[in-house]
Design brief:
Blueprint (H helix, E strand, L loop, with lengths): L2 H4 L7 E7 L11 E7 L3 H14 L3 E4 L5 E2 L5 E7 L7 E4 L2 E5 L4 H10 L2 E2 L11 H6 L3 E2 L2 E2 L4 E8 L4 E4 L1 H4 L7 H4 L3 E9 L1 E2 L2 H18 L6 E4 L9 H7 L6 E2 L2 E3 L6 E4 L5 H19 L8 E2 L1
Length: 298
Amino acid sequence: MQLMEQRRLKVKGRVVKDQSMRELTSFKIGGAADIFVVPHNVDDLRSVISFCSQDKIPFIVIGNGSKLLIRDEGFRGMVIKLGGEFQEIKEEGDEIIAGAGADLPALIDFVTERELGGLEFLAGIPGTVGGAVVRNAGAFGESLSDRTIWVKVISANNEDFILNPGEVKFGYRSSIFLENKNLILTEVKVQLFPDNREKIISRVKDVTNKKMQTQPLSFPSAGCVFKNPQFYSAGYLIQNAGCLGMRVGDAQVSFQHGNFIINKGNAKAKDIIQLIEKVKERVKERFNINLEPEVEII
């Protein structure tokens, strides 16, 4: 694809041709994207959207790639990752406005320093604010939707507007952004509450320690691969269907946590996909339950 030769995309942020997606996903898997762009601000993003619209270039927006599996063939189009001003976090009393490109650890540090509680459950999630909203990230019975006041969006038509939580269509690990890829999340406003800094730090450490004890964090993965079906833990179903250690190439179901598929070194996207299907089949045979992947395959 000779996109960049046709005309130059002018932005303050980075523009990279033939970007390996292995470097941009937590699975450390995936072929190259034709163009990778990191818009610095809203003007940059508008230029990118216009560029894609004029040349009919498909695009996807990613965060830290912690819930993405990019196929081995790569992506024929543009991959957008919000940087620069999209990483800013602002305080408005007990409310916080965070750019979609901000890392979750940075957000947690920001609110902890200002003695604002309510986001401790997000500790240990290696994603961005935008990714957390898109998949309504949560843990231990809490979800980001519980704290969301509004989200700011730019559409593929370069129109900007604000959505309230109902319009975002939050669900279990889902939102409108998984249905409508023409909407680009740029900011979110969340409601927090005053709390003692030491208490917040203690809860963050508790959440982090629980994850460290139960999850295979020493290998590349995309976190939990499947959504929990009603009344069951996906990890429980996978373990009791005899899937622990099941392997295709260098892709393996973790012995430590059944709902994690890990990259033991040189796993391919096709290995992960094949292993996902094997696990789904085994669980279906054993429990007559259809597991739904939480990981998005691009």
